[in-house]
Design a protein that fits this description.
Elements: E1 2-7, H1 14-23, E2 27-30, H2 31-41, H3 43-53, E3 58-59, E4 62-63, H4 65-73, H5 76-100, E5 105-109, E6 124-129, H6 132-143, H7 147-155, H8 160-166, E7 169-172, H9 176-210
Parallel strand pairs: 1-5, 1-6, 2-5, 6-7
Antiparallel strand pairs: 3-4
Helix pairs in contact: 2-3, 2-5, 3-5
The structure holds adenosine-5'-triphosphate.
């Protein structure tokens, strides 16, 4: 199964692009949402988080997200420890999830694909980009929060230039109507790659069967 990672900063349009892939029949793994789920549901991860942050970080089985956020906000070491627990658990879950999917390829959505070093878990990466002011405008409208707060969140993310330089493909998300043809183009390329892989495996089969 070919795996595609989609990344980009706040308000650039990752989820919008992922929805377009979903409309084309592609399964999407939302790593942010799945990380939240795993921190509650995955027993090993839960125990590891308790071991580092204390039993009281869970209340009646629910993670006290506010307390956890407060701890990691002011303590870089604690943040690194949390990431070192959560990212591997999410990538294991993503790998198992991908195995269960049908279709030519799957998509992993992650705002921190490169920051968290997750790019090794996917075959290709796509950076979604949009002009800064447009991102701020879109995120402010969507979340109903003030622009300065969004600007501050963007300031601590990896720069657009760096994300773009690391990605295999860059999708510029300005006009909605221009996005769909770009996604179609990539969709065709990934399906073609999957077909080539299938043909290669088909050619290998008789040889493998002989052995
Ligand atoms: P975040 O990382 O902050 O969750 P994101 O990268 O997933 O953001 P989206 O949620 O896809 O970004 O987009 C942010 C907002 O901008 C949404 O309300 C979305 O509907 C809107 N939006 C995205 N792309 C476009 C576009 N091309 N034209 C108009 N609005 C758009």
């Amino acid at each position: 199964m070919i795996k595609i990672g989609i990344t980009g900063g706040i308000g650039c349009g990752k989820s919008t692009v992922c929805r377009l892939f979903q409309e084309r029949g592609i399964a999407v793994y939302d790593s942010d949402a799945e990380a939240k789920r795993l921190m509650t549901e995955n027993e090993l991860l839960r125990e590891a988080i308790k071991a580092y942050f204390g039993e009281e970080i869970y209340r009646e089985g629910s993670l006290d997200r506010k307390a956890l956020a407060a701890r990691v906000f002011s303590d870089g070491e604690a943040l690194a420890a949390l990431n070192a627990l959560v990212h591997p658990a999410v990538m294991r879950d993503f790998g198992q999830w991908a195995e269960r999917q049908q279709g030519d390829y799957v998509v992993l959505e992650s705002a921190i694909l490169f920051e968290a070093g997750l790019e090794g878990h996917v075959d290709h990466t796509i950076a979604v980009m949009a002009p800064l002011e447009l991102r701020i405008e879109r995120a402010a409208q969507r979340d109903g929060c003030d622009r300065e707060a969004i600007r501050r969140r963007i300031a601590v993310q990896m720069s657009d230039d760096e994300v773009a330089s690391r990605a295999d493909y860059v999708l510029v998300n300005i006009l909605r109507e221009e996005l769909a043809p770009e996604v179609d183009h990539l969709d065709r390329a990934f399906r073609h790659e999957a077909e080539v892989e299938r043909q290669k495996r088909g050619k290998c089969l008789p040889h493998e069967e002989v052995n």
